[in-house]
Write a structure and sequence with these properties.
Elements lengths: L7 E5 L4 H12 L3 E5 L9 H11 L3 E4 L7 H6 L1 H21 L4 E5 L28 H21 L2 E7 L1 E3 L12 H15 L3 E5 L5 E6 H14 L6 E3 L4 E3 H12 L4 E5 L8 E2 L4 H7 L7 H13 L6
Parallel strand pairs: 1-2, 1-3, 3-4, 4-5, 5-9, 6-8, 7-11, 8-12
Antiparallel strand pairs: 8-10
């Protein structure tokens, strides 16, 4: 077990949604943390990763920097989602070897799983087909980084681990960004429609797909626990075990947001993957971790955060 208080931890994407929560939780544990964001440099450039690790000399790196978004963003920028995520991860892994980093966490995505993976998704199923088409380039980049971490472990002895969280949500997200994932996007839509007195909110698809979600503080706690105790090339899924249809999710968020008017489903747009729910039993066994925040409670916190101006909770 690694005592993190004796380590210097560098978090790429440390100023993002998950990154801010992780950095805060680490500092609450008296861990020395360096949080890197966009202003610190473009990690798609190999020289930037090298300079940053040379300067900071971390013992541990948590790679959270990512280009991500919902279905619309994935469809609009598939090449960027593939190339930028792959390059950032590969550059970080190479620099971790060159500057003798003790451990690195690579954050994967359930978008890497095949479109028709049996539910709940088990880690062994990741190679059993092609990812869902609307996010296949992004998912393929995350698959590549899983293999890359395993290859660097095999050739250089780098303690590189992979965690695959389901969709994250919670306070302090970017609710009004058009590229957002489903929960922050829905919160922004419904709260805005309620404030403006709109009579209709249009949503993509037919609402039938199901999703599992993970509250952001639960995700951060899993990462910290993995930093302390996990050392294996095999990826670990992180999820809550709760599955909900997009239609029911929209209804719940509309109610919490104070929106009481019509929801219109535009079926000319894609649904995305039919079902997404991960099996987190390996993470429970390996980390002694499980999600604590139930969806109903987490949605309430997230909507409250948006309504009070997205201030930290």
């Amino acid at each position: 077990m690694i005592d993190l208080r004796s380590q210097r931890v560098l978090v790429t994407g440390g100023t993002g949604f998950l990154g801010r929560v992780l950095v805060r939780q680490l500092r609450e544990r008296d861990v020395k943390v360096v949080a890197l964001g966009h202003k610190d440099g473009n990690l798609t450039r190999d020289d930037v990763a090298q300079v940053l690790l040379k300067r900071e000399r971390p013992d541990i790196v948590v790679h959270l920097a990512v280009l991500c978004g919902g279905i619309g963003a994935n469809r609009a920028r598939p090449a960027d989602f593939l190339a930028e995520n792959a390059m950032m991860g590969l550059n970080v892994l190479r620099a971790c070897v060159d500057w003798q980093v003790r451990k690195v966490v690579m954050l994967g995505s359930i978008c890497a799983y095949p479109k028709h993976t049996p539910v709940p998704f088990c880690e062994d199923a990741i190679w059993n087909g092609y990812p869902e088409e609307t996010n296949a380039p992004y998912g393929t980049a995350k698959r590549l980084l899983l293999v890359a971490a395993q290859a660097y472990r095999q050739q250089y002895g780098l303690n590189a681990i992979n965690l695959f969280p389901t969709n994250l949500y919670g306070p302090e997200d970017h609710f009004d960004d058009a590229s957002n994932h489903v929960i922050p996007a829905l919160i922004g839509k419904f709260c805005g429609a309620a404030r403006r007195g709109e009579s209709t909110v249009e949503l993509w698809g037919d609402g039938s797909p199901t999703r599992g979600f993970l509250y952001v503080t639960d995700a951060a706690e899993a990462i910290i626990r993995a930093l302390e105790v996990y050392d294996s090339p095999e990826p670990l899924n992180l999820g809550s075990g709760e599955e909900v249809t997009i239609r029911d999710l929209a209804t719940k968020i509309a109610e919490l947001s104070g929106y009481r008017s019509r929801i219109e489903w535009n079926t000319s747009y894609p649904n995305g993957q039919p079902r997404r729910l991960v099996d987190s039993s390996r993470a429970r066994a390996a980390l002694g971790w499980e999600a604590k925040v139930k969806l109903a409670e987490g949605l309430k916190y997230a909507v409250e955060s948006y309504l009070r101006g997205n201030e930290p909770r």
